Amino acid sequence: MKELIYLLFFYRIKQDSFCNFIEIDFYRQNKEQLRKEVELIFDKPETYKADTAFSFYLPKSDMFLRRMIYVPFKDLVVK
């Protein structure tokens, strides 16, 4: 689980189209809490309620993918 969380930090920072550094900083400081919450979700899946995810479109450009999708970090770990 610990390795997965670090891998997703790297993914969110380097490859994801939307990176919220405030969220990354929060979960870096609270890794143990995140791990416990995710383990609880795996132990009791009926208690899991996904947070709100959203998508938005940037202006059309050759430099950017237009569609940006944000998935909360805890939901990304669970998926």
Structure characteristics:
single chain; mainly alpha; 79 residues; 10% strand
Task: Give a written overview of the molecule.
The protein has 79 residues and is mainly alpha-helical. The protein has one domain (2-78). Helices cover 52% and strands 10% of the residues. The chain is built from four helices and two strands. The protein has helices spanning 2-14, 21-29, 31-43, 73-78; strands at residues 54-57, 67-70. It has a two-stranded antiparallel ribbon.
Quick summary of this structure?
With about 80 residues, this protein is mainly alpha-helical. The protein has helices at about 1-15, 20-30, 30-45, 75-79, and strands spanning about 55, 65-70.
Structural class: mainly alpha
Helix content: 40-55%
Low-confidence stretches: none
Into how many domains do the coordinates divide? Answer: 1
Rg:
14 Å
Distance between the termini: 13 Å
The tally of helices reads: 4
SSE blueprint and pairings:
Layout: H1 2-14, H2 21-29, H3 31-43, E1 54-57, E2 67-70, H4 73-78
Antiparallel strand pairs: 1-2
